[in-house]
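Work Package 3 (structural annotation) set out to generate three-dimensional models for the target panel prioritized at the project kickoff. During this period the team completed the workflow that converts sequence records into discrete structure tokens, so that structures can be stored uniformly alongside our sequence database. As a representative example, we reproduce one entry of 195 residues exactly as it appears in the project archive.
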Amino acid sequence: MNPQITALRERIHALEGELDAELAKRSAELRIGIEHGRVAFEAELLRRHRQLRNGLLPYVFGAHPLIMLTSPVIYAGIVPFLLLDLFISLFQAVCFPIYGIAKVKRADYFVFDRHHLAYLNALEKLNCAYCSYANGLIAYTREITARTEEYWCPIKHARRVIGTHTRYALFDDYGNGEGYQERLLELRKGLAKAK
């Protein structure tokens, strides 16, 4: 791989680490902690959060009518999401062991913790759970398909692609046929211990 690309990837990884550290500082400033794997708030902060909660009826009836009309469209997405979840999980369970690809850990992509926020009413918590599921599913699916692409066709596109997955930078350059087969085997070996 190109040394400059490798250096850039390392800098991006370092910046992501700095961002995580800053986000952790912000959580500490908000006095949010994790105890025994659960979110914990100080009693005073929890009391204040409860005071900030919008009532369910004012929340529903205060919504713009068009928002109320489009809500069923949004929630109808649960059907294709569940079908995608079933398919992608089955795909990984059947294919990855055969290809020797390390499985994607589902729990790393599905995070449901917003229900602990006392300033959200029941409907807001449901909305947050739905969005967490949908975005977690897309991220989970993306990682599974990225590993599949790396196994079968780790070649960059000729045109710039917006929003590539994190594995894309490892792929061979478009049109660089020299050593492709060796690089393909190298990448496949790396997938056995992918994180």
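The longest helix spans residues 122-152.
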